[in-house]
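FW: tagging you since you asked about this chain on Friday. Here's the raw sequence from the shared folder, copied in full. Didn't touch anything.
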Amino acid sequence: MAQSKSFRNSSLSDRIFDVCNIIFMILLVIVTLYPFLNMFALSFNDANDSVRGDIYIWPREWTLRNFDYVFSESNIFYATFISAARTIVGTVVSVFCTAMLAYTVSRPEYKLKKFVSVTFIFTMYFSGGLIPGYLLIKELDMLNTFWVYIIPGIIGVFNMIVIRSFIEGLPEGLMESAKIDGAGDFITFARIVLPLTVPALATVSLFVAVYQWNSWFDVFLYNSSSPSLTTLQYELMKMLSTSNTSSASSAADAFANAKGNAAAVTPTSVRATMTIVASVPIIIVYPFLQKYFVKGMVVGGVKG
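HL: got it, structure written out here
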């Protein structure tokens, strides 16, 4: 009621702005949600019926046959396990190490903080390149290992800047009090800084988790010859590649013959189903981190 009175009492220009803003946000929501809803409809719709077209945001003929096909692949569950493992381990290790670096470069008594910060920021704009990076990984004997997913990306410079900006906004008296009580730098970091930087850590955790979950190129580059280290996204990429390099009819026949069920699935239905399967974990996790994500980005943006 108060909001409606405020709207009526506002000026004409404010009303026009509010109406235009509401219309724009509604259109933005539609544009953002439509691709996902379309994939949802195609994944749950009968593949033969989908060929007719006109499937938008709601399935016309419901079926779980597409999901049966995807999950009947022998390596899908194992690839999902590897993706989950690299996401959990990679997120925990990366966030902890990045937070330690951010705490170090945020301390005013650290004489090399500016040099270290500039050096890390320099790497955001210039890299050694793909071939030198591959040769480095090879020399470190990390080819065909799980740790090639974790160690090369253990420090994120942008993430470090977000956490550092948040730490610099904390009361300096807290750290000084801890040192007076005899706490060292690591104790101060672990018991004082980390609990107070939860919003920034949650923001960075979401960034890292999404990157780890969606990453497939490092699998292709370093572990393509190790089926035991494949990931869900890499399997999705191979399936998309197979569909895109063959005609729709021949691909559909290949999928159908693989299951002995004529025209059971099509490349389009499989792509949509794999997209939904790969997206669900992030969609489930994000609502729990949303309030920390917004707060962390606001504070990091203002302080940065």
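FW: Confidence is low (pLDDT under 50) at residues 246-252, 254-263, 300-304.
HL: agreed, and The chain is about 75% helix and 0% strand.
FW: great, closing this out.
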